[in-house]
Structure formats: C-alpha cells, structure tokens
Amino acid sequence: MLKPFSLTFFEYEDGDAFGKLCALLSCAPIFVIVAFVALAASRRDLATLAFLLGQLLNELVNAALKRAIREPRPPSQLRHSGPTDYGMPSAHAQFGFFFLTYFAAWALRHWRVSAFWRTASIGCVACGAGAVSYSRVYLRYHSINQVLAGAGVGVGAGLLYFAWVEAALRPRFAALAGSALGCALWLRDCTHVNNVLLEEYKAVAGKGHKR
Predict the structure, then answer these.
(1) Least confident piece of the model among 2-11, 145-154, 157-166
(2) Is residue 31 included in any domain, yes or no?
C-alpha cells in the first residue's frame, strides 16, 4: 500500500481558495528550514546554527510527545492518515511558536535596531505563527486543543532553549569559532556585531570603492 509523504501532502476542498492558501501556509515550516540551512551554510554564524539546532530539537520533542500521547487527528480531516498518524500536539503550531518565542527573546536581548523595527519584526513573525496554526484547524488536520497544546509547548520549549543557549552556548561561541574545528568549518561568532547585514554591506561596498 502506498503512503503519501505527509510532510508536504496537504488536501483542501476543490474550489476553496482560502483552503488553498491554508495549504500553502502549511508549507511554511519547510520553507523556514530550507532558508535556515541556506543561511547557516553561507554565513557559518554560530547564533544561526544554534537557532537551527533548536528548531530541529523541537521537532524531535513533538514527535516524542505525539507517540506518547497517541491522540488521533480530528475524524473529519480530509487527509487519509494511517493508524500511527497522531495529532497531539500540532507540529506546525509547535514549530511556529518555538520560532516566535526564540526570535522574540533574541531580538529583545541582542538585536540593536530601533524599537519600531524590533516590534514590527516580532509582530510579523507572530502573525505568521498564528496564521499557520489557524490553517491546521481550518483544513481539519488538528483540533483547536491540539493547536493550542502545540503553541504552548512551542513557547515553553523556546524559552527553555533560549535560556540554555544564553547560559551554556553563547559564552563559548568565541572559543568555538577560534578552535581548530571552528577554523576548519569557517565558523563565526557575530553576536558582538550590532547589525551583521550592515557590516557585511559596508565590507563589500568598501572593497568595491577601492577598486
């Protein structure tokens, strides 16, 4: 018997334009992970790598919780799920709210931009996390309780992981970047830089003017 690849297999009612939008929103975690990997591979920044590691660990936590709780998805769901396809807590909600919580904590503590841009960025991420979570209820892949549980676990996991990174990992970033392994992998510690994009732009623009 063939089984669909559930990570990208989303169904919606034929002719439902909003349902199609919700199906596209359900792909957001995939896009985020691909962007994370591309950013980590190109920049080799330890803060970005730590964020990516947290998202992956969060997915493992969700898989473990689903197997432990074993609560099925809503019976009215459109997808043809197998007997081991559980819905508590929602992986999409947990992913989105972990991302939101970690990003907000990092932005409030380390991002040296104006309060407007910081608030606007956090607000946009919050809207995205909420929209993705709502899409799972609309498409009947999850109940409201499953989405709320996923959001709660995501917030808690995001806070705990951020606290651990700040206490245990971030103080060691400079040493890791300067180690033999860090040099071999071209790892960088950019936590002391006020605006990484601006500094990279200045560096590239400066080289261009020298030519």
Answers:
(1) 2-11
(2) yes
Coil/strand/helix, residue 34? helix
Q: Is residue 52 assigned to a domain? A: yes
Owning domain of residue 161:
17-210
Look at the chain and report how many structural domains it folds into: 1
pLDDT per position as a tens digit, 20-49: 788 788 888 888 888 888 888 888 888 889
Mapped onto helix, strand or coil, the DSSP state of residue 72 is: strand
**Residue 117 domain flag:** yes
Whether the CB-CB separation of 24 and 136 falls below 8 Å is answered with: no
Q: Does residue 2 fall inside a structural domain?
A: no
pTM for the complete prediction?
0.83
Q: What is the DSSP letter of 186?
A: T
Q: What is the CA radius of gyration of the chain?
A: 20
Q: What is the DSSP string of 82-140?
A: -TT-B-SS-HHHHHHHHHHHHHHHHHHHH--S-HHHHHHHHHHHHHHHHHHHHHHHHTT
